[in-house]
Design goal:
- By secondary structure, the protein is α/β, with parallel strands linked by helices.
- It folds into two domains: 6-36 and 95-203, Diaminopimelate Epimerase, Chain A, domain 1; 40-93, no CATH class.
- The chain has nine helices and four strands.
- It has helices at 6-21, 40-50, 53-57, 66-83, 87-93, 96-113, 142-145, 150-165, 169-187, and strands spanning 26-32, 124-130, 135-140, 202-203.
- The protein has a four-stranded mixed beta sheet, with helices on both faces.
- A hairpin with a 4-residue loop joins β2 (124-130) and β3.
- α2 (40-50) runs antiparallel to α4 and α8 packs antiparallel against α9.
- The two termini are 14 Å apart.
């Protein structure tokens, strides 16, 4: 992914500030390169494949020596462990369910770490994006979730995921903030001028 520049992040932060002027919501954006390093995935796949080496070599007369078979097994383990660690291959090996679980856990942890659950009126909203997993989630505290149905957030998330897959993360963020703003301004309009949380994008 083409990483966002300082200028790009400033555009997102300006869009957030505009929404918060007209709503009581506190909007925080997070962009992560990946939710997990998944180091165990290449090693696990390499280990499983190396276990097949003795089954193959037992039919090759030149490899009847147990020591040679063991050396071949270790060679396959090391080589595959390195090759499968290449990011595109590694991410292709990770099951989609695990990617979503890891990214979702990180999103919820960041929601708590950034005190989005402690805003006045429970109006914190997190927009979380993890690039490697092509994962987008919007988490809203109860003051917002009671007003805006989950289906409305999901339509925004779906549009953002398409942008992430096209490597259009900046446009995705700007569209997302604007779309969220429409709901937030309608359901939780500004009652006073406040800014409990920083508008800057969190980059991991």
């Amino acid at each position: 992914m083409k990483w966002l520049t300082d200028e790009d992040r400033a555009k997102v932060e300006a869009a957030i500030a505009e929404v918060e002027k007209r709503s009581d919501a506190e909007l925080v954006t997070v962009l992560a390169r990946q939710a997990d390093d998944y180091r165990y995935i290449p090693l696990m796949c390499a280990a499983l494949l190396s276990l097949l080496v003795p089954l193959v070599l037992v039919f090759v007369p030149l490899w009847t020596s147990p020591l040679r078979i063991l050396l071949a097994q270790w060679t396959v383990l090391v080589v595959l462990g390195l090759v499968l660690h290449w990011q595109p291959l590694k991410m292709a090996l990770v099951p989609r369910r695990i990617k979503r679980w890891r990214a979702g856990n990180l999103a919820r942890r960041l929601f708590l770490e950034h005190n989005l659950h402690h805003t006045r009126g429970a109006t914190g909203v997190l927009v979380f994006v993890s690039d490697a997993e092509h994962y987008v989630e919007i988490i809203a505290d109860r003051g917002i979730s009671e007003q805006v149905p989950d289906a409305q957030w999901q339509s925004i998330v779906d549009a953002f995921v398409v942008r992430v897959k096209r490597d259009e993360v900046l446009d995705g963020f700007l569209e997302c903030v604007a779309s969220c703003g429409e709901h937030l301004i309608r359901h939780v309009p500004a009652t006073d001028q406040k800014n409990e949380l920083p508008n800057r994008m969190v980059v991991l």
